[in-house]
Design brief:
Distance between the termini: 38 Å
Radius of gyration: 19 Å
Shape: globular
Largest sheet: 8 strands, mixed
CATH superfamily: Mur-like, catalytic domain
Helix content: 25-40%
CATH class: Alpha Beta
Number of helices: 10
Oligomer: single chain
CATH topology: UDP-N-acetylmuramoyl-L-alanine:D-glutamate ligase
Order of helices and strands: HHEHEEEHHEEHHEHEEEEHH
């Protein structure tokens, strides 16, 4: 198949709609050798800021010297934007090859959805390319999202608002319940300063699973600094470690990205002890160079 024919095949999988549940993805990944077990992961859900936060976390991990995969959606221009390693998009030829190999493995009887298929493709690609860390964004919701087969080292829940109500529920509580479904037992959770309704759901889930919960503007916060030519902030964290980082610069002038950057820094703190790992300079370098295509105005 050509690349265009491959994309046509993939997009035709949307006819199978959205299937809420992990059975398909679990079976598909088993056929591929369970690639999701070969790398460490950060899992991100939320309504606003998922993509930006994911990009920043991935950039920090890369600056720390790790071979880092990033799986996000949707794409803005090209399908290849969805799957990257150390900032480099998957080659079109690799999309063709992996699609063909996965089709051959599943045969005619197994019918994954579009998102289930490309999730498996991303995880297989990361495995084949010796990815050490993967930052993975949910497609929709969390509890029954195809990406929720991961056992991550940290989970992140960005701002929650009303979205995909026909699938996730008609209230913030119901939507938060679905997104909080990515929380795993004992795995740290970093979350934005949510509405009271959403935060209550997240807190109950984290408490039930004995997962440490770090909340923006309670356990960590940022102080906005605006100069003539740049946007910067001072970051302060009280949990899990007392940690301060001053004069953190961003490549954007969009103030809401400070919140996303703060979530990214706190997530790194839940994974690495700053007394044992050099994280300050990697954070500063990563956040200064991270760009947000198509996300400067969209929160």
């Amino acid at each position: 198949m050509s690349y265009n024919e491959t994309l046509q095949y993939l997009y035709n999988l949307t006819k199978y709609g959205i299937k809420l549940g992990l059975k398909n993805t679990t079976e598909l990944l088993k056929l591929l050798g369970n690639p999701e077990r070969t790398f460490r992961a950060v899992h991100i859900a939320g309504t606003n800021g998922k993509g930006s936060t994911a990009r920043m976390i991935a950039a920090v991990l890369e600056e720390m010297g790790f071979r880092t995969g990033l799986f996000t959606s949707p794409h803005l221009v090209s399908f290849t934007e969805r799957i990257t390693i150390n900032g480099r998009e998957i080659e079109e030829s690799e999309v063709v090859r992996l699609t063909g190999e996965i089709r051959e493995r599943i045969g005619d009887t197994f019918k994954p959805t579009f998102f289930e298929f490309i999730t498996a493709m991303a995880f297989r690609y990361f495995w084949e390319n010796s990815v050490e860390w993967a930052v993975v964004e949910t497609g929709m919701g969390g509890r029954f999202d195809a990406t929720n087969v991961l056992m991550p080292e940290a989970t992140v829940i960005t701002d929650i608002s009303m979205d995909h109500s026909e699938f996730l529920g008609d209230s913030l509580e119901k939507i938060a319940f679905e997104k909080a479904g990515i929380i795993k037992e004992g795995v740290p959770v970093v979350t934005s300063s949510q509405t009271e309704e959403a935060l209550s759901v997240i807190q109950k889930r984290a408490e039930k699973l004995k997962s440490p919960l770090y909340i923006y503007e309670r356990d960590f916060f940022s102080e906005y600094q605006k100069s003539e030519n740049s946007l910067s902030f001072d970051f302060h964290s009280f949990q899990p470690f007392r940690f301060t980082l001053k004069g953190v610069e961003l490549s954007t002038e969009a103030p809401h990205q400070i919140r996303n950057a703060s979530l990214a820094i706190e997530t790194v703190l839940t994974i690495f002890n700053p007394d044992r790992a050099e994280i300050k300079n990697p954070i500063i370098r990563a956040l200064k160079r991270t760009t947000f295509p198509g996300r400067c105005e969209i929160r």
